[in-house]
Amino acid sequence: MKLTRRNAMMLPAGLAAASLLPGATSAAEPEANDDGLYTQPWFHSSFLDLKEDVAEAQAEGKSLAVLWEQNACPYCREMHRVNLANKDIVEYIRKHFFVLQLNLYGARSVTDFDGKEMEERQLARRWRVNFTPTISFFPKDPAKVEGKPGGDVEAFRLTGYWKPFHFRSTFVYVETGGYESEPNFQRWLSDYREKLREAGQNVDIW
Question: What is the CATH number of the domain that holds 87?
């Protein structure tokens, strides 16, 4: 299932801070790398061979998530200031995922799962990635992606800025295999939210 920007549950940047989950810190200006992309010190360091990355992730019991960003992207900034400043969110992601950051307009050489090598910007077009932030999630088993373009074997795609609860839930959706048992993310999310509430957790979706 691939969601479009229209149904991506985005918020204007100025409203996002109101939807912090427990464990959030005060929103601070995120650090940027030499390409002007906001970054996190725990992002996966890679030789940009995606077959190797997914195999390395599996060896640690994790899945690969490719995060597409671009310079001066306001929604990328908000994702870093709010969602990735939240301790609970970051701990969950780091426990279960390798996050590889790519530049929508970058020129670094990346090797796709089928062995074809190209610049980041060419890979973005190949995968039909048009907006940032976009997160492409992949199955944990390397055999499910081997020999195929990444855009054809995604487990799930998150497009645009999502509020903290929905953002974290996408990682839960992939990690728990929810995308296999319930391909409709909205339906899965509704059930997941009710389970959390029944367990006594306060779910802030706004």
Answer: 3.40.30.10
Q: Token pair of 82, please? A: 């709010």
> Which pair of tokens denotes residue 6?
């229209």
Tally of domains within the chain: 1
Confirm whether 73 is domain-assigned.
yes
| 44's tokens | 């996966």
Residue 39 belongs to some domain of the structure: yes
Pairing of strands 109-111, 117-119: antiparallel
- Helical ranges in 60-161 per DSSP H: 74-81, 87-96, 120-126
- Cα gap 25→87, rounded to integer Å: 7
Q: Per-residue pLDDT tens for 182-197?
A: 999 999 999 999 999 9
69: amino acid identity, one letter: E
Phi/psi class of residue 177: alpha, beta or left (left: φ > 0; alpha: ψ in -120 to 50)?
A: left
Domain residues for the domain of 103 are 28-162
Predicted confidence (pLDDT) per residue in 49-60, tens digit:
999 999 999 999
